[in-house]
Amino acid sequence: MTKDLVCIVCPVGCRLTIEKDDTAENGYRITGNTCKRGINYAIEEMTHPTRMVPTTVKIEQAFLKRLPVRTDRPIDKKLIFEAMKVINDFTCIAPIKMGDVLIENILGTEVNIIATRSMDKV
Amino acid sequence: MKKYDIVVIGGGPAGLAAAIEAKKEGIDQILVIERDRELGGILQQCIHNGFGLHVFKEELTGPEYAERFINELRSLGIDYVLDTMVLEITEDRTVHCVSSADGYRIIESQAVILAMGCRERTRGAIAIPGYRPAGVFNAGTAQRYMNMEGYMVGKKVVILGSGDIGLIMARRMTLEGAQVMAVAELMPFSGGLTRNIVQCLDDYDIPLLLSHTITKIEGKNRVEAVTVQAVDENLKPIEGTERVYECDTLLLSVGLIPENELSRSAGVAIDNATKGPIVNESMETSVEGIFACGNVVHVHDLVDFVTEESRRAGKAAAKYVKQEMATSMAILETKAQEGIGYIVPQRIRMENVGEQLPLLMRVRNVYHKAELSVKIDGVEVKRLKKAHLAPGEMERIDLPKALIEAHLGKYISVEVVKEA
Q1: Chain-centre distance of CA A35, in angstroms?
Q2: Staple partner for A94: which of A121, B17, B173, B352, CB 3.0–4.6 Å?
């Protein structure tokens, strides 16, 4: 399997190609990178791509209707939409402090959903 | 009438950093005036991550970045007012403002820091033909509706413009269940950061149509369809390339303009290239005692750079209030030459330059393996190799003071030199 990627480690944006190569030490053949960091990025994208998920949850008794939240660590890319369903079903009540854990261990990933701002009760 | 040492117009990232820095420099009477119902500015609606990598060495969301500064402002005991609109600033640094709570107020200050930020270009600015139905939003406005007010703005979306806000909104709407059909970009390259193209478009298989624009909007009450058309090298639509996308929403991410009505009322000279005040090495405008920083001066791509610039403005305003600023008549100018869109600052008084003079600039085009050549009165004094230059990524050159003084002339210029 071959995959084309744009490296986002730095602003240069090298166009990488990665393919399985059992003869290579790390198991992959990567071309197009201009530095070592591109190799790690490509292998990570090929084997277990993860992303931070910033979004919002419903909040009650606050001056806004939505509270911004994020995953406290990157989550498996394949689970993003499933995680969004859980997050969108959740409602919290003010007051909330930045960093409060709102949903623990989402989808059994050990990743928590945390508040990214404080919101007072009104 | 209360008299302040420094009044800061705007409580976003620029105003917060400038006020905090001035306070740390020993200025006591500081007031931050904010028109919104809370501090933080646009950061409060930028719920995505990617902020703070330079300033805090960690990756934060917009609200987290804002809250750190708001907490610091409060812990330093700096005064601020909310829901207050500044109507006019005069050349003698009198600030006229109005609010429901306090009515009309006139505030005198020794120094003023302009930190009003910028606003989005609208459909009117780019003159898209067609009907005027509901469903055409500026991307930033849609962002506020979705992330703060809790309104979903549409279900089938086309985005015009690949600036960072457009890219971020493409992902945001997709995550919330909308179908983003395409992002059309007039230029042959995106104005957004590469990481946003990868993480916001490629991740969700959203096509980026470079050298395309929207030439028609259909729908009487609500958007029903838009026509996307390829453009030639002169940015003119090419006949026969029309493609109709049925959709209910069009988001526009077609650029930001520094918001300078108040600057103009104070007689501050504006640079045609940046659309912001002409500033000197101390971020002081053409009017003595009026400083400016952040997106009101020139649109930045990273808030971290806004913070850095605003800290310099806050420090300089404090120096001005303490009457420690050198007001030299000998002024160097900066000139953007071949391939460079603009340079900030535009004017330099060497007496106020620290060890390094930071020059911030944007290139006009995408270049691979090019060099930036810095000249003083036409004589090259520095050359920097660049693997990659793009208009979407601001460049910074720090010139050592000793180097400038060794070549002391009338102007410093920067140009792009393409590899032979």
Answers
A1: 24
A2: A121
Whole-number Cα distances in Å, A75 to A111, B35, B174, B332: 7, 37, 17, 51
What CATH number is given to the structural domain containing A102?
A: 3.10.530.10
The verdict on A62 and A28 lying in the same domain is no
Q: Model-level pTM?
A: 0.94
Residue A12 sits at the chain B interface (C-beta within 8 Å): yes
Instruction: List all residues of chain A from 14 to 43 with a beta carbon under 8 Å from chain B.
Output: 34
Contact criterion met (CB < 8 Å) for B63 and A117: yes
* Residue at A102 is within a domain: yes
Q: Are residues A59 and A33 in the same domain?
A: no
Cα–Cα distance between B33 and B260 in angstroms, integer? 16
What Rg, from alpha-carbon coordinates, does chain A have? 19
Kindly report, residue by residue over B240-288, the tens digit of the pLDDT. Answer: 999 999 999 999 999 999 999 999 999 999 999 999 999 999 999 999 9
* Residues A36 and A77 grouped into a single domain: no
B301 pLDDT tier (thresholds 50, 70, 90): confident
B149 touches chain A (CB under 8 A): yes
For A51-100, write each residue's pLDDT tens digit: 999 999 999 999 999 999 999 999 999 999 999 999 999 999 999 999 99
Does A102 lie in the same domain as A72? Answer: yes
At B179, which amino acid appears? Q
For residue B177, the chain A residue with the least C-alpha distance is A81
**Position A18 in a domain:** yes
Residue B99's pLDDT band (boundaries 50, 70, 90)? Answer: very high
- Calpha distance B40→B140 (Å, rounded): 15
Quick one: A32 and A58 in the same domain? Answer: no
Q: Would you say residue B194 has pLDDT above 70?
A: yes
How far is A12 from B386, CA to CA, in rounded Å?
A: 9
A33 shares a domain with A9: yes
Q: Which two tokens stand for residue B101?
A: 């709570």
Boundaries of domain holding A69: 54-115
Is residue A121 included in any domain, yes or no? no
Count of structural domains, chain A: 2
